Amino acid sequence: MRHLMLFIIFLLPFLAVNGQSRATAKKAVKLMGCGFEIAAYAETDTIAWNAVEAGIKEIVRIEKLISEWDSFSQTSEIIRMAGIRPVKVDKELYDLIYRSGKISQLTDGAFDISFASMNKIYQFDKTERQMPDDVVIAAARMKIDYRKIILNPLDTSIYLEKGMRIGFGAIGKGYAANKAKEIMSKMDGVKGGVVNASGDLVAWGESESPEGWRVNIANPKNKNQAIAWFRIHDLAVVTSGDYEKYFISEGKRYSHIIDPKTGYPTSGVSSVTIFCPDAELADALATSVFVLGTTKGLDLINKLNNIECIIINDDGIIHQSKNLQINYY
Ligand code: ADP
Ligand code: MG
Q1: What is the pLDDT of residues 264-288, one digit of tens each?
Q2: Is the distance from CB of 267 to CB of 293 less than 8 angstroms?
Q3: C-alpha–C-alpha distance, residues 54 and 181, integer Å
Q4: To test ligand 1's pocket by mutation, which of 117, 198, 253, 256 has the most ligand atoms within 8 angstroms of CB?
Q5: Whose CA is nearest to atom 6 of ligand 1?
């Protein structure tokens, strides 16, 4: 089994644009269970560092709201009250659930935050495992259906049927990246920046080069070798991969992404990279294309304006959407 992986590497600028002095601050920090790298490019060193800290603070705040692992979060309360009563939540969480439902519609249910009823069934711990019993999988799958998430706009409450769960594993990092960018880019003196959540990346504004931030897509077998690169100004580049969380059964690799229609983890696709102005949508679509597979996934992406993708399959074959302008080595 080939082990393919995409690493998104971005090169940071240091200083001097058009004779003006600029400074870049960059910090690596563990948030939302993964490594974030946050960078700001600003008029002064102090402004750049303040921006980085503001970005981190924002991500910490979002994690508290959406985490299904933190028993004090509003998300956990929704799950605890499934089958009992609706839970009134912050408008922000309500809106995230609303948008998640819209993406479910767009992807014909490939993306579904109620996939989380399957959480206890699989262990994606990179080991050889037996596929759980069909009956067990079928029973948990019955609880997946985004149409059964009841949203009440009057009191911003959410109700789940008994046994349903929700989880933002496929959209939360993108949302957090968007929000950190929003806060940082509004700060006086901040010229540009990057929020990179372990390969879910959004970049905006100025960088050292008038051509924009350079992003490399590296070959996992040799991290020093990029398979492709491009320049971006205001864009999110988000990768979903099967290499961090998976298990192997009878020689086949199963990723941590669940096909809501079958309840089984997906196999066949190794990584999906989405290019899109919006990090949240990019994050959710990367997961969706995994579920849809190469043909349906490319069909969907080719229909959407300003959204492109690269799919790498298990066999190493690379597919890309119609209008992707990318430089291969
Ligand atoms: P990565 O963690 O590689 O960036 P994703 O953004 O695709 O990958 O997120 C994968 C996570 O999304 C899973 O670990 C799980 O929490 C959640 N998930 C799995 N299947 C689905 C699905 N069909 N729809 C929505 N979320 C999913
Ligand atoms: Mg995702």
Answers
A1: 999 888 889 999 999 999 999 999 9
A2: no
A3: 10
A4: 256
A5: 170
Ligand 1 binding pocket (C-beta < 6 A) is 111-113, 115, 167, 169-170, 200, 240-241, 245, 256-258, 260, 283, 286-287, 291
Helix residue ranges per DSSP H, 171-266: 172-185
At the topology level, CATH places domain 1-329 in T-fold (3.10.520)
Task: Determine the pLDDT at residue 166.
Answer: 98
φ, ψ (nearest 5 deg) of residue 150: -95, 115
Q: How far is the CA of 206 from the centre of ligand 2 (A)?
A: 26
State the residue for tokens 């089958």.
83
Position 11: which residue type?
A: L
CA 137 – CA 123 distance, rounded (Å): 13
* 105-122 tens-digit pLDDT: 999 999 999 999 998 889
Q: Determine which of 6-20, 157-171, 197-211, 259-273 has the lowest per-residue pLDDT on average.
A: 6-20
**Ligand 1 atom 7: residue of nearest CA:** 287
Q: Where are the domains of the chain?
A: 1-329
Q: Which has the higher per-residue pLDDT, 119 or 298?
A: 298
Residue with tokens 């399959």: 313
Write down the pTM of the prediction.
0.91
* Element housing 138 (H / E): helix 134-141
> How many Å lie between the centroid of ligand 1 and the Cα of residue 248?
18
Question: What is the arithmetic mean of pLDDT over 138-150?
Answer: 97
**Whose structure tokens read 């050889």?**
128
Here the tokens at position 57 are: 């603070």
CA angle 259, 261, 266 (to 5 degrees): 20
3-state class of 329 per DSSP?
coil
Q: Whose CA is nearest to atom 4 of ligand 1?
A: 240
CA 140, chain centre distance (Å): 24
Which whole-number Å values give the CA distances from 203 to 5, 150, 192, in the listed order?
21, 35, 8
